[in-house]
Amino acid sequence: AASILSLKANTMKSPGNFNNLIGLPLTILLLQEHHKLAVLEMGMNRAGEIARLTQIADPDIGLITNAARAHLEGLGDLNEVIKAKGELLRVMSKESTAILNGDDELYAQLAPTFQGQILTFGLGKMNYIRAENIKKIGDCAQAFNIYVKSERIPVKINLPGVHNVFNALSGAAVAFCLSTSKELIAQGLGDFRPLKGRFQFIDLNDGIRIIDDTYNSNPSSLSAALKTIKDLVGKKQGLVIGLGEMMELGKESSRYHFDAGQLIAGIEARYLVVLGEHGHNVIEGACKGGMDIKQTYLATTHAEMGDAIKVNVRKGDIIFMKGSRKVALDEVVEVIKGYFGLSS
């Protein structure tokens, strides 16, 4: 959204992960007279946090992109995640506008809780803002048409994966609420580049490519990323995966990590290196899904993970790295970049 809105007016956006009860107020304090718009991120891992953040920010537009199986340690299950995110709608003024993913199960639960205007986005034809005719452009981009009612906006984004189509739609929905022209919506989406650690492509020597998705991880985002990765790996390429712990999953953590291993086996990764408390569950799942135990390695440190990846990468391979923020797999990415060198 900020990429589009910054073309329309001077826009403040949340820096980094300033999305909690400390970071959001600090961001608001940075607002100055020349700022005309602000895009503020809200995050939580406990019930009640979104409600308090909404009281502080008092937004004119509230966007909920989706509900994922994250922060389950503090919330319990997906229904509680949806309720916690729904605090935004329960606290927002009825003069505000809510934007919801019309294709997500959260919509049916949350829409009745808000008395103001609701706009939906998604791929389904019933959505107010939707995408059609999605076409892949190389490995790193895709084009599609955004429809707002009957008006068509052709766009290109420099990100792969259907999950990024949804992200683009949500940003376009915010811009539409602020009467932004379709030309600026298309330009803003086209100008946006992946943020560090968020499915970022890094090309190395010998045709090796890192896909750095180390900013964070949960079962839903991992599943979406692996679906995209599957379409990126060519017939002659190998896939090496470095997977870190998915944090805050509560009592079901072992199962979610086991399932992750099965998903990795399902996309035929050649080698898997895991790091974290539930790494053995990932390997168990991968072996259950068909990988040989010799294709896996359980690392205990960043250095071990880096070494295991380095010796198992071949020319032309893709290295996919993902884990929760606290696991800090970006440190391993830097080691791999230094070892193979950036492609000139």
Explain this structure to me?
The chain is an alpha/beta fold. It has two domains: 2-191, UDP-N-acetylmuramoyl-L-alanine:D-glutamate ligase (3-Layer(aba) Sandwich), CATH 3.40.1190; 200-340, Mur ligase, C-terminal domain (Protein-Tyrosine Phosphatase, Chain A), CATH 3.90.190.20. It contains 13 helices and 14 strands. It has helices at residues 2-8, 23-29, 49-57, 72-75, 78-91, 106-110, 162-177, 182-191, 219-232, 253-266, 279-288, 302-312, 330-340, and strands at residues 11-13, 37-39, 61-64, 97-101, 117-122, 129-137, 141-148, 151-157, 200-203, 209-213, 239-244, 271-275, 296-299, 318-322. A six-stranded mixed β-sheet has the order 3-4-5-6-7-8, with helices on both faces. Strand 9 (200-203) and strand 10 form a beta hairpin. Helix 3 packs parallel to helix 5 (78-91) and helix 10 (253-266) crosses helix 11. The longest helix has 16 residues, at 162-177.
